[in-house]
Amino acid sequence: MRNRIFMLGGIATLVIGLAVFALGSAFPRMQAQERRSEGHARGRFPGPEMVEHMARVLDLTDAQQTQIKSILEAARAATEPLHNKMDEVHQQIEAATANGQFDEAQVRALANQQAQLMADTIVEHERTKSKIFALLTTEQRAKAEEMHKKKIHHRH
Predict the structure, then answer these.
(1) Domain containing 52 — which CATH number?
(2) Residue 46 carries which DSSP code?
(3) Of 36, 70, 79, 134, which has the most beta carbons under 10 Å away?
(4) Is residue 27 a part of any domain in this protein?
């Protein structure tokens, strides 16, 4: 009887542990999906909270903050149609390959379309980064480069 109790307790602990593990590993994916649905997908410009963080870390002046916000708003307006089109092309790819369908010519055409949109988005991001860097002092640029390196290192 005592062995049965220990065995049932062990099984219950194992089941609970597996459930916690499954939820724990799913949580980051759920958070990432939630961020994407809120428009914070990778590749989109940072929101006000990131500008505030930059302001603190780089010790930006009020004038710099205002200019950076203006640059980011203009870039956001320029890239929004690109992001919308990318979403549309992604949906077309999903529809074209649903239920195991595959037309290579159609998928390749859509993939090329998406690649061009991504290239245009990258160019706009780098243009925006260049405009922001032009506003920074030498010390702020050094700090910004360090932040950028840490961000890249953190991703990997």
Answers:
(1) 1.20.120
(2) P
(3) 79
(4) no
Cα dist. 65→24, 56, 60, 62, 69 in Å?
Answer: 38, 10, 6, 5, 6
What whole-number distance in Å separates Cα of residue 97 and Cα of residue 115?
A: 18
Q: Tokens at residue 33, please?
A: 């999906």
The Cα 25–Cα 57 span in angstroms is 32
Question: Could you tell me if residue 18 is inside a domain?
Answer: no
| DSSP per-residue codes, 27-38 | HHHHHHHHHHHT
Cβ 124 vs Cβ 79: under 8 Å? yes
Q: Is residue 55 part of a domain?
A: yes
Q: Residue 13 above 70 pLDDT?
A: no
The 10 Å Cβ neighbour count of residue 128 is 19
- For 86-97, what is the mean pLDDT? 95
Residue 21: predicted pLDDT: 52
Q: Is residue 21 part of a domain?
A: no
Q: Give the model's confidence band at 39: pLDDT under 50 very low, under 70 low, under 90 confident, else very high.
A: very low
User: pLDDT tens, 108-119?
Assistant: 999 999 999 999
